[in-house]
Write a structure and sequence with these properties.
The complex is a heterodimer of chains A (113) and B (114). Chain A is mainly β and 113 residues long. Chain A is 0% helix and 58% strand. Chain B contains no helices and 11 strands. In chain B, a hairpin with a 2-residue loop joins strand 5 and strand 6. Classes of the chains: A mainly beta (113), B mainly beta (114).
Chain lengths: 113, 114
């Protein structure tokens, strides 16, 4: 059974700092990995999707990397801003698993002024 | 934002009562999903649909049923609600099974079973 872990569970950084969020998974037979953002009381917003054949994806200040062999992904946020404060979730889709996602429990990020 | 509407947004009910949650989409996407989100467990898949009248179970399907009679609507029913089903429920949609298609989520329904 695929297990997805995100460490740390919570993180607080000063504005302007570059930071890295971690995601690890136990089964490397993944189809893709997706990073989401969740604001309090809201649904999930898709940030980046990395295919199993890719090493990284970039969108603005966000860069996600994938190392399938080691079962790890990182989300790099450059020049963090208070508006980046949210919970960040990663989810993996297994090969042969339909379109079902297995989620981590998230990292709650707070960017302070 | 993807056109996904969940209703109701909040509901409080008593143990043993039936509850139906609705997910409505305006994107004409084929795939629809129901998840629940609980502290310490993350999001877990309850049921999903890959077309009208085509549904399948997810990881935590016991106590839940679903129906999809139209492309745009996916209903989640708790036949006899229990306190363990208190949770936040999210609907998601995706266009296809192709691997480059992300899932898009609604804003959730907060359900409390007393």
């Amino acid at each position: 059974k695929q297990e997805v872990t995100q460490i740390p569970a919570a993180l607080s950084v000063p504005e302007g700092e570059n930071l890295v969020l971690n995601c690890s998974f136990t089964d490397s037979a993944i189809y893709n990995l997706q990073w989401f953002r969740q604001d309090p009381g809201k649904g999930l917003t898709s940030l980046l999707l990395i295919q199993s054949s890719q090493r990284e994806q970039t969108s603005g200040r966000l860069n996600a990397s994938l190392d399938k062999s080691s079962g790890r992904s990182t989300l790099y946020i450059a020049a963090s801003q208070p508006g980046d404060s949210a919970t960040y979730l990663c989810a993996v889709r297994l090969t042969g698993g339909g379109n079902k996602l297995t989620f981590g429990t998230g990292t709650q990020l707070k960017v302070e002024l | 934002d993807a056109g996904i509407t969940q209703s109701p947004r909040h509901k409080v009910t008593e143990t043993g009562t039936p509850v139906t949650l609705r997910c409505h989409q305006t994107e004409n996407h084929r795939y629809m999903y129901w998840y629940r989100q609980d502290p310490g467990h993350g999001l877990r898949l309850i049921h999903y649909s890959y077309g009208v009248k085509d549904t399948d179970k997810g990881e935590v399907s016991d106590g839940y049923s679903v129906s999809r009679s139209k492309t745009e609507d996916f209903l989640l029913t708790l036949e006899s609600a229990t306190s363990s089903q208190t949770s936040v429920y999210f609907c998601a949609i995706s266009e296809s099974r192709e691997r480059d298609q992300p899932q898009h989520f609604g804003d959730g329904t907060r359900l409390s079973i007393l």
